[in-house]
Design a protein that fits this description.
Elements: H1 6-16, H2 20-23, H3 33-52
């Protein structure tokens, strides 16, 4: 699956992963560099809120 297109990976990921952070990927129709960077920033902000009570 690692080299498959996102349209192939998404259903497999959604059926195999119960992690809330992976369930958020269901909303993405495309998975490109821009989407990956946005997800990274979103995850960083969530971590900062959990650990330090603030975001960027």
């Amino acid at each position: 699956m690692s080299n498959s297109a996102w349209v192939t990976k998404r259903p497999a990921l959604m059926s195999a992963s119960l992690l809330p952070i992976n369930q958020q990927l269901h909303d993405h129709d495309t998975w490109d560099e821009e989407a990956i960077q946005k997800r990274g920033k979103d995850l960083l902000n969530k971590a900062l809120k959990l650990w330090f009570g603030r975001s960027l």
